[in-house]
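Lab notebook, design round three. We kept the backbone fixed and only want residue identities now. Task for the bench partner: fill in a sequence for the structure below.
Input structure tokens:
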């Protein structure tokens, strides 16, 4: 773990991760398919195992050793597996059956977790663990997704004031904001591919619990947008 880091930052991020896990579990529990709802507990157990494995790898300094390796170990063992799983879910018949059964409203509300994530990133910048460009004072505008999520969800699903197309455009914009911060974060990390922020690299992701950001929270948010965009394109209403 990062030495001398204020406890409130660590606690806030751990709680954010737990809330993300519970919200994602709730999404599956509210699936349109009884078959998928029955899979919610095994999926929850699988995600807990994944988080535990990432914690073990990070605490053993696996990701912070041999940073010059290409591809970076964090990418191979932490980021690539969930990305491959997302692709599998979107391109296979059984996977699409699962993704198409998930409730759009719940997925939209899930993006609220981006608010505490952005606050933690700002605090980590203050503590000189990430560069300014990864915060809302730099190149990261992802907090707008978190702030707008409950408003958009309420106006679309509760008040029916915003349209299907508006929600699609909102998801595309928020996906773009996510890609922006992920790209800047990767290029700022002290790996062989680093291109940015040499004066203050993104070192926080190499330590627990912040390794959960690229290995769990970001994939969950990415999955939510891709599922939402797919559903909004193939369905005419919700």
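Proposed sequence:
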């Amino acid at each position: 773990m990062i030495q001398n880091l204020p406890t409130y930052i660590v606690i806030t991020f751990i709680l954010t991760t737990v809330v993300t896990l519970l919200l994602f579990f709730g999404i599956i529990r509210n699936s349109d398919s009884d078959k998928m709802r029955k899979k919610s507990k095994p999926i929850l157990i699988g995600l807990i195992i994944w988080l535990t494995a990432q914690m073990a790898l990070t605490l053993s300094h696996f990701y912070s050793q041999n940073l010059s390796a290409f591809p970076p170990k964090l990418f191979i063992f932490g980021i690539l597996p969930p990305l491959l799983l997302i692709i599998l879910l979107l391109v296979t018949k059984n996977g699409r059956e699962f993704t198409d059964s998930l409730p759009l409203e719940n997925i939209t509300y899930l993006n609220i977790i981006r608010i505490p994530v952005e606050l933690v990133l700002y605090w980590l910048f203050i503590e000189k663990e990430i560069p300014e460009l990864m915060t809302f004072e730099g190149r990261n505008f992802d907090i707008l997704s978190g702030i707008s999520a409950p408003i958009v969800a309420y106006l679309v699903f509760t008040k029916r004031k915003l349209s299907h197309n508006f929600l699609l455009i909102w998801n595309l914009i928020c996906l773009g904001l996510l890609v922006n911060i992920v790209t800047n974060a990767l290029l700022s990390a002290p790996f062989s591919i680093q291109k940015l922020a040499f004066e203050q690299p993104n070192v926080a992701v190499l330590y627990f619990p912040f390794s959960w950001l690229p290995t769990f929270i970001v994939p969950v948010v990415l999955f939510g947008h891709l599922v939402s965009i797919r559903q909004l394109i193939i369905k005419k209403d919700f």
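Keep this in mind before ordering anything: The CA atoms of residues 43 and 192 lie 34 Å apart.
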